[in-house]
């Protein structure tokens, strides 16, 4: 049986979990429509790796919290923003800190996996939907009925709602526990990573620590650029590749390029040394499909062109159309195709591959640049149009709202903030070069960037999670240690999933631009056998 004092603590707090406990947070330019509060008992959720950003999988069971929900609007904007703050019910379970979690794709936030992860670590956990929930189509929140863009809603998605949620999180947490939060943190990946950078640049006093992973930092540009690998194929008028062809090309790249980093371990750790020309692979025959219904195909020219377009940078008249993926990225991420079983017009028994481009990119193009949700990119889109759109005044307008690429972090530095970005070398959604370029631009602005902002590139890790490489599942804890104890991380600990023999490998992920180098002795699988240089 639990000690009576703890029962009293939670029970007393439950009586406080009512709307009257919480004051209007009084945020300039924001109207509070309502505040609700109720106890949620025994909340449980299964969290896969990375869905609580930079954390391993975990199963959370039986956490009780006070769910405070604030509905707000900017007068004149006709928006409705929902922000939830989850407060560990028993005050002795609260670690004194606040953690805000971000979104992904076209979703501003309120991802329950991330909120639950933070809550289970003892944080007061806050997140906002930024005016639209994850189920609302962009054609509904991004456009007015006359198909003109709703820039207010885009602003909410971009940044306003994030700052407001940070302020709400702090003031309402104080209302509940009767004391200020000791430290405040932000974590997110992809769109969530962009949000972290936007906060550091525009609201430098909101958080003590920010983890901005694999950021979509030039959101509106990258949304369009992410269509490049597919549109490049469309321009060839020659169909789309089978997924197995792309997988074979990735496997060939790993075979050719992995040893160049000094250790043959199935992981490309120095993608810049990789120069495999996929066109040399054309004609190689490979098994395709599952073994029961499998058949053999030859790697086609179109698949090789696809891989080439995905791996290497492309520019037109000085405008970057595409920065290029690491060669270990799953090419099917942005060049996904599907086939269906057919009995009629194909000797192999399957249909020609049909393209499935990245959904949020297709929606952004159709709604925000073509102002036509029904726009079909396959009928007349091409690389030339993409280039023109990237340079268009309308895109510049979105860039002003959505880009988080300001290299000047001096206000964040002066406020005492600390920030970490990591992006996997096998990211198959956003080129890793995006984060690297940004970090270099901050460094060009301030050579002492490492005093407050650090960047890492784990080999063999995909977009925010997954991949055969070294996942940095302790990064958030490293950030807390840096903020609260001044211990700046010179490396992150990367850990693989168990291999076929159940072996887990560990390796330091070095502070950019350093790379881990094998000492030449000791277990290759042990982090201690590697040095950053
Ligand atoms: C809200 O803030 C403004 C300025 O920050 C202040 O003038 C006003 O008195 C505040 N209102 C309340 C109810 O605290
Ligand atoms: C919550 O779970 C605990 C066991 O973990 C159980 O004792 C308790 O009755 C549950 N409470 C509610 C309200 O379901
Ligand atoms: C979570 O629970 C599921 C279902 O019981 C189980 O398959 C999975 O391995 C668990 N995950 C972790 C990280 O413990
Ligand atoms: C928190 O409260 C809001 C408003 O009542 C509700 O919509 C939401 O489902 C609640 N969340 C949880 C996890 O219970
Ligand atoms: C405000 O938004 C709602 C739906 O979000 C819409 O039905 C209504 O027409 C809008 N009002 C104005 C004045 O635009
Ligand atoms: C609590 O935070 C507020 C706002 O940041 C600050 O003005 C106040 O001094 C803090 N109170 C204490 C006791 O630290
Ligand atoms: C693959 O190429 C070989 C040799 O060029 C040819 O004999 C075979 O028919 C091709 N297979 C398919 C499925 O196209
Ligand atoms: C490819 O598209 C299919 C059909 O929409 C989907 O089921 C599958 O998960 C996608 N694969 C990838 C790698 O995105």
Automatic annotation (TrEMBL):
Transmembrane segments: none annotated. GO terms for molecular function: feruloyl esterase activity; metal ion binding. Its EC number is 3.1.1.-. It is an enzyme of class 3 (hydrolase). It holds the Pfam family Tannase. Keywords: Calcium, Disulfide bond, Hydrolase, Metal-binding, Serine esterase, Signal. Belongs to the tannase family. This is Carboxylic ester hydrolase.
């Amino acid at each position: 049986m639990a000690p009576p004092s703890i029962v009293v603590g939670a029970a007393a707090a439950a009586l406080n979990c009512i709307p009257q406990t919480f004051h209007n947070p009084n945020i300039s330019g924001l109207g509070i429509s309502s505040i609700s509060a109720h106890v949620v008992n025994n909340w449980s959720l299964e969290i896969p790796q990375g869905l609580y950003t930079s954390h391993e999988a975990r199963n959370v069971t039986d956490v009780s919290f006070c769910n405070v929900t604030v509905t707000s609007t900017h007068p004149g904007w006709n928006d409705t923003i929902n922000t939830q703050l989850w407060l560990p019910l028993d005050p002795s379970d609260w670690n004194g800190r606040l953690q805000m979690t971000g979104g992904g794709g076209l979703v501003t936030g309120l991802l329950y996996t991330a909120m639950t992860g933070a809550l289970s670590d003892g944080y007061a956990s806050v997140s906002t939907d930024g005016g639209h929930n994850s189920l609302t189509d962009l054609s509904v929140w991004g456009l007015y009925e006359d198909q003109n863009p709703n820039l207010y809603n885009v602003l909410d998605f971009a940044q306003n709602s994030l700052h407001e949620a940070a302020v709400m999180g702090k003031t309402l947490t104080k209302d509940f526990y009767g004391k200020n939060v000791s430290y405040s943190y932000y974590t997110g990946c992809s769109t969530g990573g962009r949000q972290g950078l936007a906060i550091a640049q525009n609201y430098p006093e909101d958080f003590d620590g920010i983890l901005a992973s694999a950021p979509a930092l030039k959101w509106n540009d990258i949304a369009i650029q992410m269509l490049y690998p597919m549109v490049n194929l469309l321009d060839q008028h020659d169909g789309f590749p089978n997924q197995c062809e792309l997988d074979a090309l990735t496997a060939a790249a790993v075979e050719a390029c992995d040893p160049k980093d000094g250790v043959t371990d199935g992981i490309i750790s120095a993608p810049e040394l990789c120069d495999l020309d996929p066109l040399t692979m054309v004609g190689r025959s490979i098994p395709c499909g599952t073994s029961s219904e499998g058949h053999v195909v030859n790697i086609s020219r179109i698949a090789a062109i696809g891989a080439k377009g995905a791996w290497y940078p492309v520019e037109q008249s000085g405008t970057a159309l595409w920065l290029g993926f690491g060669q270990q990225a799953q090419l099917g991420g942005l060049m996904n195709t599907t086939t269906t079983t057919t009995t009629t017009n194909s000797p192999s028994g399957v249909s020609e591959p049909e393209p499935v481009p990245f959904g949020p990119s297709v929606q952004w193009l159709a709604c925000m640049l073509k102002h036509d949700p029904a726009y079909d990119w396959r009928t007349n889109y091409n690389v030339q149009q993409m280039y023109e759109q990237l340079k268009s005044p309308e895109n510049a307008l979105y860039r002003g709202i959505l880009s988080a690429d300001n290299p000047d972090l001096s206000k964040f530095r002066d406020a005492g903030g600390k920030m970490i970005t990591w992006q996997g070398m096998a990211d198959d959604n956003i080129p890793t070069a995006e984060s690297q370029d940004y970090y270099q631009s901050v460094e060009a602005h301030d050579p002492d960037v490492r005093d407050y902002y650090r960047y890492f590139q784990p080999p063999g890790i995909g977009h925010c999670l997954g991949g055969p490489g070294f996942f940095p599942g302790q990064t958030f804890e490293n950030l807390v240690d840096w903020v609260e104890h001044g211990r700046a991380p010179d490396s992150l600990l990367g850990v693989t999933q168990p291999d076929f023999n159940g072996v887990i490998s560990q390796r330091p992920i070095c502070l950019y631009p350093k790379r881990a180098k094998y000492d030449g002795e000791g277990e290759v699988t042990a982090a201690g056998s590697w040095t950053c240089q």
